[in-house]
Write a structure and sequence with these properties.
The chain is of the alpha+beta class and 442 residues long. It contains 13 helices and 21 strands. The chain has a six-stranded mixed β-sheet with strand order 6-5-4-1-7-8, sandwiched between helices. It is elongated and about 80 Å long.
Length: 442
Amino acid sequence: MIELACQKRQQLFDAMPDNALVLVGSGHEAIRNRDVEYPFRPASDFFYLTGFDEPEACLLMSKKPDAENRMAQRTGMFLRPKDPQQEVWEGKRLGVDMAPDVLKIDQAWSKQELNEILPQWLEGIDSIWLSFEQLDVWQPILQPIIRSLKAQARKGKVAPTQLQDLDGVLHEMRLIKSSEEVALIKKAAQVSVQGHLAAMQSVAAQRFEYQLQADVEATFKRHGAKREAFATIVAAGENACVLHYTENRAAIAQGDLVLVDSGAEFEGYAGDITTTFPANGHFSAPQARLYNWVLKAQRAAIDCIAPGVSYFKVHETARRILVEGLVDCGILQGDLDELIEAEAFKPYFMHGTSHWLGMDVHDVGAYKKSGVWRKLEPGMVLTVEPGLYIAPDSEAPEAYQGIGIRIEDDVVVTENGHENLTLGLPRTVTEIEQWMQANAGK
């Protein structure tokens, strides 16, 4: 990850104007309850540019003339110093002395030196680049430094005059993945596949949703993923009609469909898969009918992915087929185009079909340019996840009530089309039933 981070820093340097300074923080540990912290995961922008995963660190990237008036690029980092007593309790720290060699940066300091060192890096800088989402963090730090530099103008000190949002540049970089990044996402995706197969294999032996969750997440770790990319959803029966259901406490009944939405994180990159399968290994006729329409919509949406295709075309393609399915099942009545125009499908399909995927499961990058849906480009990675959710209190025919179905894969846009990164799962009704029959209890 360090070598990849060096490449990304150079890419950012190339995009930066002269006389600019970039500030990116790793984030802090958060308290779960009383004195127990959540497991720490660095901010994605920071990890993208450093490959370093300790809390309370800050990256500086400076692009300004050196003593010989040549434009120079420098990288520095504030981080936690070595502390033998704290390391007994919390684990080893990299420390200041080793940081330049390990992280391939120019300089490193203890985080306690920030107020002493940062003014030196800011002097003579025209623009400061940071995420505007972190303005509340940086303002109390930067304001007194800038005020002090301005007060020393008669001594030749020059204070920054511009504050720029780093997100527009950095997040566009993150949107287009390199071949190395695609390989990491593919690894995360394939580990995720194994977790979903484990759920399909063990569901018959589990009584509760959280037990199935345990099988999924244990499989991720056995295959080298240290953490999940997001909170795992295991939703049995009508719970699948709750889009972000994460309670995972309910009992699994034999006639239920089980929706599992879960992804592994590998080396900072996320997988994101949703499978829907019958707890007893056999779809009922209404379940199969709805499932087939969702699968048809998903496959058509994936098939249309290619460079130059509008991002919205993916959703538009899936949406039209889902509405056809709702009409076919007698859940909606009327002219197809009129139903789409009136958004009559919204009670049953209320979300988009895709989102960007990368270091964050809902990854960064603009979806529109100048108000227009952007065109897909090679290196973009997106999910394709149509669904139908027929709530128990809906106006649909009773046979379909309480059924929730979503099917999700991860797809990278290639030079000539696309590649599905999450191949390896049984997807058709027949494939799922045959696979579950052949693998149950193994």
